[in-house]
Design a protein that fits this description.
Elements: H1 9-19, E1 27-28, E2 33-34, H2 38-45, H3 48-59, H4 61-84, E3 88-90, H5 91-98, H6 115-124, E4 128-133, E5 136-141, H7 146-184, H8 212-231, H9 236-287, E6 298-301, E7 315-322, E8 326-331, E9 337-341, E10 345-347, E11 355-358, E12 367-374, E13 379-384, E14 393-398, E15 402-404
Antiparallel strand pairs: 1-2, 3-5, 4-5, 6-7, 6-10, 7-8, 8-9, 11-12, 11-15, 12-13, 13-14
GO molecular function, one term: double-stranded DNA binding
Protein name: C2H2-type domain-containing protein
Keywords: Coiled coil, Metal-binding, Zinc, Zinc-finger
Length: 415
C-alpha cells in the first residue's frame, strides 16, 4: 500500500500524533521507537531490526543498563537544576516535567524500577536533600558549582569574621565585668525587711504636720551653736552628733553607687547571655545535617530486614562510614560485620559519666561526657570535652543528637 502524500489529511494527522507524548509502555528504548498502540508495539518486537538490537544488548546487558542509567540521571539532574535550582520540590513534579521531552531516557531502561528508589539513591549519594512526607518524596538540589561553592565559602568566611568580632566583644565585656568585681570586692547581700501583715480592723490615721514646725525646731540648735562659737566653747555633743551622721550619709551614697554598678553589671551579663544564645542557635542550625552516623560510635539495628532479623535490636560499633549515609558495623554479640543504612539504625544512650559523641546540632563531631538524662523531655546534658565548647555543659540535647562511644576506641587524653 502506497504511503499518503505529504499534504494529505492522513499524513498531517500522523505528524500531529507523532508530536505528542505517547504511551510510555509502547516505547522501545533500544530502538528509540515510539509505537502508537499495543498491536504496533507487538509487531515491532517481532521485527528483524529489533531482534538484532536485542542480540547486541544481550551480549553485555550491564553496559547498556549502566549507560542508560547515567543518561537518565544526568538529564533528570539538569532539569532539576535549571527549573528549580535549590528549592525544595516534590519529586513527582520534577519527573513529570522531565518526561515531557519526547526523546527522554525512560526509567524502564535504567537500574531503577521506581521513582522512590531513584530519589533514595540521590539522597544516599549526597546529590540531593531528600525527605519523605505524607504527600510523597521531596527533593532539593545541592549546588556544587565552583562559583556557588566559592560564594558559600565567602559567606562562611564572613560569618567566621563576625563570630570572631563577637568573641572579641565578649572577652572585652568579660574583662570589664572582672575589673568591676575586683574594684567592688565581695558584695554583701541586701537586707530584706518583712512586710507587716495588714489588719483590716486596724484604724489608719494620717498626721499632716505643718512644715513650719521643722524650721522652729531647728532654730534652737542654730542659736546654741552660734553662742558656743561666740564664747569659744567647744560643744563635744554637737561634734559627736555630726560625726555619727556623716558616715551614715556617706554609707548611703556608697550604697547607691554600688547598686548602680551592680545594675550595670547585671545588664552587661544579660546582654552577653542573649548574644551567646543567638550564636548557639546559629551554630546549631548550620551544624545540623541529614546524615549523622560517625566512626567509633555504638548504634542499635532497628530493622528486621537486616540479616533476615538475625541482627534486630543488636548493638554494634561503626567501623567505617560509607557515602555519608551508610556504615560497616561490627555486631557485639557475634562479631559479624554488616553494612547498614543509617535509616535502619538508632543512637544508643549510655549511663551518666560515660563518653559520648555529639552527632548532630550544636557541638557536632565533638566528644563529651554524659552528665544526666531527662527521660520526660527525651534529652540529656553533655559536658563537652573537645572543640570550641570544651568545658561547657550543653543541656536539652535530644537523644537523636548524641550517641555512645566505644570505650575501647576512645583516646583517654581527649577527656
Amino acid at each position: 500500500m502506497a504511503k499518503h502524500g505529504f499534504l494529505t489529511p492522513k499524513a498531517i494527522d500522523n505528524r500531529q500524533k507523532s508530536k505528542g507524548l505517547q504511551k510510555l509502555r509502547w516505547y522501545c528504548q533500544v530502538c528509540s521507537k515510539q509505537c502508537r498502540d499495543e498491536n504496533g508495539f507487538k509487531q515491532h518486537m517481532t521485527s528483524d531490526a529489533h531482534q538484532r538490537q536485542m542480540l547486541i544488548v544481550a551480549s553485555n546487558p550491564n553496559k547498556f543498563i549502566q549507560g542508560y542509567s547515567e543518561l537518565f540521571e544526568a538529564a533528570f539532574m539538569a532539569n532539576l537544576r535549571q527549573r528549580h535550582t535549590t528549592k525544595r520540590v516534590r519529586a513527582h513534579v520534577v519527573y513529570n516535567e522531565y518526561i515531557r521531552d519526547k526523546n527522554h531516557i525512560h526509567m524502564n531502561a535504567t537500574r531503577w524500577t521506581t521513582l522512590s528508589g531513584f530519589v533514595q539513591y540521590l539522597g544516599k549519594t549526597g546529590k540531593c536533600i531528600v525527605d519523605e512526607t505524607e504527600k510523597g518524596w521531596y527533593i532539593q538540589y545541592i549546588d556544587r558549582d565552583p562559583a556557588a561553592m566559592a560564594r558559600q565559602e565567602e559567606l562562611q568566611r564572613k560569618h567566621k569574621a563576625e563570630m570572631d568580632h563577637e568573641e572579641r566583644n565578649r572577652r572585652f565585656i568579660q574583662a570589664q565585668v572582672e575589673e568591676a568585681r575586683a574594684k567592688l570586692g565581695p558584695v554583701d547581700k541586701e537586707e530584706t525587711v518583712e512586710a507587716k501583715a495588714w489588719n483590716p480592723n486596724e484604724k489608719v490615721s494620717l498626721s499632716l504636720a505643718p512644715s513650719a514646725k521643722k524650721t522652729t525646731a531647728a532654730a534652737p540648735v542654730s542659736v546654741k551653736r552660734s553662742a558656743a562659737v561666740a564664747f569659744g566653747v567647744d560643744d563635744d555633743a554637737d561634734k559627736h552628733d555630726s560625726a555619727t551622721k556623716r558616715p551614715a550619709t556617706t554609707h548611703a551614697t556608697q550604697g547607691g553607687a554600688t547598686s548602680q554598678k551592680r545594675s550595670a553589671m547585671d545588664a552587661i551579663m544579660a546582654e552577653e547571655a542573649r548574644q551567646r544564645q543567638r550564636r548557639d542557635a546559629d551554630e546549631a542550625r548550620t551544624s545540623r545535617k541529614d546524615h549523622w552516623v560517625a566512626k567509633d560510635i555504638v548504634v542499635k539495628i532497628v530493622d528486621k530486614k537486616v540479616g533476615d532479623g538475625a541482627y534486630y535490636k543488636k548493638k554494634g560499633t561503626v567501623l567505617k562510614v560509607i557515602e555519608l549515609f551508610g556504615a560497616d558495623i561490627k555486631v557485639h554479640d557475634s562479631g559479624d560485620i554488616v553494612r547498614v543504612d543509617q535509616d535502619d539504625l538508632e543512637t544508643v544512650i549510655p549511663l551518666a559519666g560515660k563518653p559520648v559523641k555529639i552527632v548532630n546540632g550544636l557541638g557536632r563531631g565533638h566528644l563529651g561526657t554524659l552528665v544526666s538524662i531527662n527521660e520526660e523531655a527525651f534529652a540529656v546534658s553533655v559536658l563537652v570535652a573537645t572543640g570550641p565548647h570544651k568545658g561547657r555543659t550543653l543541656d536539652k540535647v535530644e537523644y537523636e543528637d548524641v550517641c555512645k562511644m566505644d570505650e575501647a576506641r576512645v583516646d583517654p587524653d581527649s577527656f
